[in-house]
Amino acid sequence: MTDSRPSGVAALMTPADTIHLSRAPFRFLVTPTRRRPQDESIHPHSEHRLTEETPMSRIVQWSITVALAGFLFGFDTAVISGADQPIQALWGLSDLQHGLLIMSMALWGTVIGAIGGNWPTDRLGRRATLLLIGMLYLVSAIGSALATDPYWFSLFRLLGGIGVGISSVAAPTYISEIAPAKHRGTLVALYQFNVVFGILMAFISNYVVGGLFETNAWRWMLGIEIVPALLYTLLISRVPRSPRWLILHRGDTQGAREVLLRLDPAADVDAQIAEIQAAEDSEERAHAGFFSGRYRLPILLAFLIAFFNQLSGINFIIYYAPRVLEAAELGANTALLSTAGIGLVNLVFTMLGMALIDRLGRRTLLYIGSAGYLVSLVLISRAFFSGELGGLDVPLLLGLFIAAHAMSQGAIIWVFISEVFPNHVRARGQSFGSSVHWVCAALIALLMPWVLGTFSGGPVFAFFAVMMALQLVFVMFLMPETKGVSLEELQKRLVREPQGKREASSAAPQRA
Questions:
Q1: How far from 412 is each of 5, 357, 445, 477, CA to CA, in Å?
Q2: In terms of Cα–Cα distance, which of 474, 469, 480, 473 is closest to 510?
Q3: Which terminus in the chain has less CB density within 10 A, N or C?
Q4: Which residues contact 90 (CB under 8 A, 6 or more apart)?
Q5: Are the beta carbons of 374 and 308 closer than 8 angstroms?
Q6: What's the Rg (C-alpha) of the chain?
Q7: Pseudo-torsion of CA 354, 357, 359, 361, nearest 10°?
């Protein structure tokens, strides 16, 4: 028999804390509510509640601070697009050398960070790992801007990439562990919002800096990342440690109790701690390795969502946007300006995805996104095959592609991966999904200079269109809906029980 009580952090919410996130993703940032006076007298900790800062506003503040790691992720990922061709010309690199040492080195660092990101996230803790990320970004920005040859440059880009990889593990993991189930999609998606905001700011920064400096502009483009990296590093120290991590990895129930009381002084903290420990006891009884049959479905889901995210061609567009637009017979300056437009579309439709993710659900958004992918990619491929270039058709279709990605895959991926794994292996599962994502991204960055030098845009965009048709099949037949379901309940639905057979109703993924 299933316990009907709210589970996890969702149980910390009171009616007065309810925020209508489905109407606007940021409404709760500017209209915090206070509890009713009659509620304040029913709990011994009520004296802590006479404040304008509500428990939900604390969760939001902490989530935004942690999600700033996503801003650095996006900025670091996209800023290289402005330095792409100047660096290749400066150091006389072949297409293969340029792809390996300049364009893909940060991504290989990201792969390393994603693969090993679960270790510091579990051993050091979510907060300590997020602080480490800030320092890696800072060192990378300074070193990349001052590099004197491609080898030093690639080393510092590698360090920044490691920071990106670890952030894609630690930040979504932390936010998912403090977020109420009904708002988890929007709060975790703050990370992706910051990613695309960072991408937009990198494109704008590159455009402005490129106009201000005639020589060595690329050094200023890369070096300006020092400012947000330093700011993030200072802010992250104010975030408390994850209460789930304190319980599961340190056995510090008193520390967890203090954090939970900060989340909501009126919560039945002892009951929440007992529930988290009960879920962990179930995992310990199973004695299952990560790649055992117990986690087969979550692993498959994480692999496919990450694989299709990159095989959409999104990072190909972000990294090589100026080169693609010049191939579409736009001038160099127009191409750089168009990339800023792409970043703006990315930001606006990510906000739309955030507003809809907890209302329509993950599967519905991915259905919509898959349709947008297919239309835009097929038409862009047709334009290159037919030679109908030089106008606004390709930039507008790229805008449609970015919009489809931002409101679907972009908003969903980090939310979905953080949801499908149990507490016991969440960091490991997030690391696995992130690793798949970044291995695919690194391969694309490594191979694309050669691909663009060998093929026209027609076959390239046609390939990505085929991949998106396969993604549609995945959504139709395998992807479960996770909207509004507690992490503990998702564990029951998606993880194979260690003994006996589960009931048919709990064995199959629940779809909306």
A1: 27, 8, 23, 18
A2: 480
A3: N
A4: none
A5: no
A6: 23
A7: 170
